[in-house]
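User: Structure please.
Assistant: Input sequence and predicted structure:
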Amino acid sequence: MATHIRQMLNYFILPSYDGSHHNRITTLLKSILEKCLDKATYTYIFAPDSFERLNGLEFNTNSPLTSYMKIIPTSSYKAGILTVTFPELINKQEFVFPKETSSCIITIGTESYDLQGMRRTQAYKLHSFEVDHQQKLIESQSIEFEVPDGCLCIAGITLHYYLTDRFGKNRVNDKTLNPSGICGAIITPGELKEEQKLRWTSPNHL
């Protein structure tokens, strides 16, 4: 399951993750699943917020997302829609630009995991917007994603910083600068409908 989730979110994790992120995801998932296990029947019982502790998981502890964004987006679900609410941020106070960088593309997206079938989706739903280091205020916005029923739906966020020079615009993210993480993890109600047109892995595919 940890491997599937890493692959689901590889847009946010790769290529600049820290070496311990896989172990952190695995350890956290093990703890979550243990609390969801009904030992009398040896079955898992999930509530909408069973995986809430994934929220806030960092993919690179060398450059924590919280060091660059003082307020992290929140996620909510209603009627088939996962809404990620991006907060209003005062630039240079609540949002940080590394030295000499000129802009940042913020990307938020979702992927889903079928807990019963042990499958993951393979089609990113992404929303990106750019902020400039000179703007005073980064306005709030609500971003909506259609998600399937009966799945673990995870929202991720990553900050890609750019330096503009005479050669053009170049991304500067690396192993020491890759603020990214999870900003939502919700079990949607109902049962997965196979007619929903999503690309899924096979149950045994890793």
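The helical segments are 2-8, 10-13, 21-36, 65-68.
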